[in-house]
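pipeline/complex-builder :: batch 7 item 3
reading input block
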Amino acid sequence: MSKRDQILATTLELVSELGFHATSVSLIIKKSGVAAGTIYHHFKNKEDLIDTLYSELKKEMGNAIVKNIDTQLNYKEKFFLIWENLFTFYLDNPKKFDFLEDYANSPFVRKEIKEINQRHYQAAIDFIISGIEMGILRNFPMDFLINLIFGNVSTLVRMILMEEIQLSDELLENAIQSSWDSVKIN
Amino acid sequence: MSKRDQILATTLELVSELGFHATSVSLIIKKSGVAAGTIYHHFKNKEDLIDTLYSELKKEMGNAIVKNIDTQLNYKEKFFLIWENLFTFYLDNPKKFDFLEDYANSPFVRKEIKEINQRHYQAAIDFIISGIEMGILRNFPMDFLINLIFGNVSTLVRMILMEEIQLSDELLENAIQSSWDSVKIN
Amino acid sequence: MSKRDQILATTLELVSELGFHATSVSLIIKKSGVAAGTIYHHFKNKEDLIDTLYSELKKEMGNAIVKNIDTQLNYKEKFFLIWENLFTFYLDNPKKFDFLEDYANSPFVRKEIKEINQRHYQAAIDFIISGIEMGILRNFPMDFLINLIFGNVSTLVRMILMEEIQLSDELLENAIQSSWDSVKIN
Amino acid sequence: MSKRDQILATTLELVSELGFHATSVSLIIKKSGVAAGTIYHHFKNKEDLIDTLYSELKKEMGNAIVKNIDTQLNYKEKFFLIWENLFTFYLDNPKKFDFLEDYANSPFVRKEIKEINQRHYQAAIDFIISGIEMGILRNFPMDFLINLIFGNVSTLVRMILMEEIQLSDELLENAIQSSWDSVKIN
DNA sequence: GATGAATGAGACTTCATTCAT
DNA sequence: TATGAATGAAGTCTCATTCAT
């Protein structure tokens, strides 16, 4: 594992555990076992380190979402699969979930960075757009639909991870159905 | 305006603008025009100041939600009214929205504080519970339903405030309907 | 002695001994015995501390220059007196001399600060201007004359302090005469 | 251009622009396009690099000073020529002027280095000594005379480069005359 | 109630330099 | 000759908080 990867992995760990606010560069130094200067050799500054990690995770998430999508499936079946793909990615990678959520909600994070990284889940965006065009999904602005659906996934995942709710096949099935009911027409 | 209120108002202003992360006590001192010691006269420490403000805002929000609920209305009509009440409170008080959202998402905020302040919207909780018991709402854990609905409201408000979507009567109507479709049975 | 004055005195001491380059805030902290925060309570930043000290010293120098100037004296006599006043101030305050010289030569020092502090020796400036107007001094731009004369004083003082030359009444007399010969007409 | 010369040229550029204080090795690395290790291959350390550059520039300056000195000229004529030679060298090489001035004024620069490089303008030194011995120049210690004259040149050059004064043939002529008047006897 | 000078730990970052390749 | 990843001490500055007035 390269020093660069050690730094990124440690940062993920710390932000997940403590949040951005409490994740200091000194902590990253101590936990990752690299020298202070090494961080600044690989990253312009703390912000660049965080943004880089965000970008990498967002890319990973984007790949996970469209995994195993059979083109033969109908729209609703694809919707259910994508929803579950995202859900599973988050649940299997709780630290990445924490990071991405914390990052997404941070007011100090530059909008521009978020927009650049939209490309990583362009497939999901195209899927939503096609649903609107085919008259299957509500005629909401695409962004709004994305935020509603992703928000639903996050809500469930967060509650499971915080042990405020217990996961079951039935719950998952119903949660996806609920999400589908909120965006489908009729 | 008392010194105490100046401090609270300034804190709201700053957290809304900069987020918790960047809202330092010295900034509050400078902007509010009070002396450092004065803050610690009225509040135990920074955390206490933030928690106090959170509690006051949450109470305000709780009152706003149940405003003008006519007992004559049927369940769905009440749902629509409550949803719109929350939406309107947030949109009319964008700084309070920012604060409450940032607070809710902060991982360093103690769960215990959040729970204590649930009492401020107990009426809304009771309304959801009755909906489940009457078989009108999906049989999800109450918390999950609350999070889904409140999450939907936040998603719409955030996008409007960030000017990523434009508000219209039709959009609002459809957004509430979408939220209703996701939680109602059938 | 107030904390603020302790900081200023220590800074003067250190810059004189080590130069700006090597005078770190940590060194000032250690030697002055104040806390880090105290420096930033009294001064905006390191630059502000340095600029403040410069301004105070320049003021002191300005006062020293015009000390004991008898209006009865003729122009040349006044010139000799002012020259010697500056010379004596520097020689009696070698640390202040070092600081002012180092500051004056620092390329990173803002011109604006230098200009603001010209007011502290406005009397000397007026004296030079009157000399030009009366046809006693060479018709050089005032700034140039000032720099030539002050430069001559500094050259002598620096060599004495570095023990590259030995002070005597005769040397001083001749040095002033040399400076006078360079600026007077004829 | 060899790597070594690239490093020296870049260092000159940076010191001229930013001063020693702000000219870091990493800046030299970035601007010169060489690797960190390369600098330490050619120079023992940063100090050695600076001292080497100083020595080269001082040598160049020494050569420029005595250029075109016709042995037929009388003492005063030679004085004027040497003065103008130095002046012209500085004005034609403003970055070298900046570097040499900054170096000369840096308190952290070792005296020993300055002395070693005196040899580069030994001709000028000998010229001054002969002037004293012949009773043409004031009977000041040679160092003092050198510092006075070089100081006069620097004062004029600095003001021209900073656009605080405008160069003209007349100004230059008078400036040299002024300098001459300050050191000549009678 | 209110002030603001003072604290010192810890924040982020840059520094000159080394060394295996 | 040349590279550039790695070092870790030291840089400036901000932080939340205290306490004598």
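note: Residues 3, 29, 34-38, 41-42 of chain A lie near DNA strand F (CB under 10 Å from a C1').
queue -> next item
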